[in-house]
Amino acid sequence: MNDASSTFSLPDHFGSRCFSNDVMRERLPRSAFEAILEIQAGKRELTLDIAEIVAAAMKEWASDLGATHYTHWFHPLSGLTAEKHESFVSPQPNGGMLMEFSGKELVKGEPDASSFASGGLRATFEARGYTAWDVTSPAFLKRNADRYVLCIPTAFVSYAGHALDKKVPLLRSMEAINRAGLRLLRLLGDTESERIITYAGPEQEYFLVNAELYRKRPDLLLCGRTVLGTMAAKGQELEDHYYGAIEEKAAAFMNELNSELWAMGISAKTQHNEVAPNQFEIACIYSQANIAADANQLVMETIRKVAEHHGMAALLHEKPFAGINGSGKHINWSIGTDKGANLLDPGEVANAPNEKDAAYKFMRFVLFSLAVIEAVDRRAGLLRAATATAGNDRRLGGHEAPPAILSVYLGDPLHDLFDSLETQNGAQKIANAFLELGIRSLPKLPKDFSDRNRTSPFAFTGNKFEFRMVGSSQSVATPLTMLNAAVAEAIEHIALDIEQELSKGISILDAARLAARKSWQEHRRVVFNGNGYSAEWTREAEKRGLPMFRSAVDAIQELTKADNVRMLTSLGIFLAEETEARQVVYLERYSKQIKIEAGMTIDLVRRSVIPATSEAASRYSAACTNIASLGAPSVIQETLAKRIAQLTGKAAEALDRLEKTLNDASHIEDELERAKAFRDSVVPRTDEVREICDELERLTPKDLWPLPTYGELLFTL
Q1: What is the pLDDT of residue 353?
Q2: Do 520 and 567 share a structural domain?
Q3: What is the bridge-based pairing of β-strands 458-460 and 408-409?
Q4: Domain GS beta-grasp spans what residues (predicted)?
Q5: Which of 78, 410, 445, 624 is the most exposed place for a label (fewest CB within 10 A)?
Q6: Are 561 and 617 within one domain?
Q7: CATH number at residue 668
Q8: Cα 622 vs. chain centroid, distance in angstroms?
Q9: Is residue 580 part of a domain?
Q10: How far apart are CA 47 and CA 33, in angstroms?
Q11: Which positions ≥6 away from 32 have C-beta within 8 Å?
Q12: Which residue, 547, 574, 601, sits at the end of a domain?
């Protein structure tokens, strides 16, 4: 072991490049620090004098650690992050310089808004945009070559105040769920909680491949996935990669990845081999939703950077390889109070000190859990739209990921509990349980309140829900925004029902039970505890009237559905024109991604595959001639030559059809009609070319095939 490792101190390293509340407590005057805490809690507005104090301390801290530049770091609608670096250097009249950073520079930036995707909210000649400091998300130092850059998490809006990013709606949705949640808690008699906090913990799946092989695959470079490629003799069928021992090269990568993330204050917790060869997962500990969204963007970016240091490339596409598992990003989601209560934890009922407290906590758990179920049922379209990408279309429903039908898994105990809401002793149904293993040397295992179901797109997992439909390359901000909005609406409905029952003069527990029973009866159709991969579930979902969005194009249209717009605007999360803009952006992105993949297919096949297979056919033909001259039979070589020549001709014809279809679709002006054309015409044509070329790969001699194969990509690091 390296001696240096013995001197490494994780407590000292963790957060060493994060301007956290602990750092601010040390570096700010007490009054300024207390003001920041009140601003973070929504009890006070940020003023320029407080910003000046924080800016001075932040600049001094960053400079001490070697930073020379800062940037307002934000999340445009591309789903990536954006940054414009500004130096701390301020020239002086005597020819010298000072390191300066003002409160105004901390609070507000002015990036050019015209070149970011805006869906029509900004035109080319309307360039001004503003970034605003998100006080609740800590600034951090990001490594940039041999220096650090101070990154200040911000929101991004237009000159007219429209949200041009993914963070503003997320913050608005967190406020909406805070208002609704406090309303419901007050009805239940909670006068102490002052804030409802939304928590998220994304799990990030990804592939690692050898960098040298990666650079020889133009499709991976430009598309993030292989547009051609046939499966190797071995894939994941032996189930030997999942949770297997992590090989040293991957472990070295993970060690550096963890170190980078920990230094920035990101609590990377879990790492393991995933199902497919060379597929891995990293998960971070729960944090406040907007902080979790920031952290996950950094996780994705850092995975890519660190992979390069180790001679590898990271693939975050939802389906980089056909025939094996794709990658998702499961979002663990819960809500709690500023007093530390988890509103979705049945364990708080089981551990209540007395019957009265148990009855209150039971009803609290029931109502907030039912609000989530109601939210998924009412706003399935919006939740599906939040996960709609061209990449995710190739993953969802593929027996490796949840189906594209929104349903909720509860498990039998919780399902039975909601069925029994007419009784008075529901709290007694929640109790601590243990597994007896029948071996005295093994401990009794605390048993969770429900099982898990990996085929469900939205599953209760003990004290939280897991949104499993989200794609691996996506920003989690939009799925969290839509989920928060839907839950806030459902909480408001339940609170209103309770208020109406209370007006009849009944007790709060009886009123709450009646409201809960009503919600369960109206929305239990969305609950499914069985196998989401089965064909029977698709038929059953149709009988239940659950919406089915078989493609991203269908789902994205939900953003401008009148009832969805009404809900989002009434909660103050979007303006109507902001939802319309996002629909335009997401449809355009879908079309552009398919266009790139089709163009890559045309280029790769025409310039690499056809020359290689033509040479292969010639080689076999020449072999036939040589063998015939010796008077020996040449049936095999002749058959191969003919088959390869025939398939090469078919590939050329299919390419011509694809090229024409691509050209026709690209000239459609309407965003929705263009996206439909790409889905219905271009994608099938692209897949047709792939099918032919994959057969050619199986027939072409290895030394002539121009691309690294799946066997090399998936079993080499």
Answers
A1: 79
A2: yes
A3: parallel
A4: 68-161
A5: 445
A6: no
A7: 1.20.120.1560
A8: 53
A9: no
A10: 13
A11: 50, 53, 54
A12: 574
Look at the chain and report how many structural domains it folds into: 3
Q: 255-294 burial string, b = 16+ CB within 10 Å, else e?
A: eebbbbbbbbbbbbeebebbbbbbbbbbbbebbbbbbbbb
- Following DSSP, what letter does each residue of 520-573 receive, concatenated? HHHHGGGB--S-TTSHHHHHHHHHHT-----SHHHHHGGGG-HHHHHHHHHTTS
Strands (E) in 125-276, as ranges, are 129-133, 139-144, 147-158, 196-210, 268-273
Q: How many CB atoms lie within 10 A of CB 463?
A: 18
* Token pair of 68 as six digits: 């020379």
Q: Is the pLDDT of residue 520 over 70?
A: yes
Relative to beta strand 331-337, strand 312-315 is unpaired
Amino acid residing at 673: E
Residue that wins the pLDDT comparison between 100 and 126: 100
Query: Could you tell me the CATH number of the domain that includes residue 211?
Result: 3.30.590.10
Question: Which domain range does residue 197 map to?
Answer: 174-227+244-574
Task: Say how far residue 584 (Cα) sits from the centre of its chain.
Answer: 20
Q: Tens of pLDDT along 108-132?
A: 998 877 788 888 887 766 678 899 9
Task: Please give the model's pTM, rounded to 2 decimal places.
Answer: 0.93
2, pLDDT greater than 50: no
161 with 220, same domain: the answer is no
Last residue of a domain, one of 165, 184, 206: 165
In a domain, 385, yes or no: yes
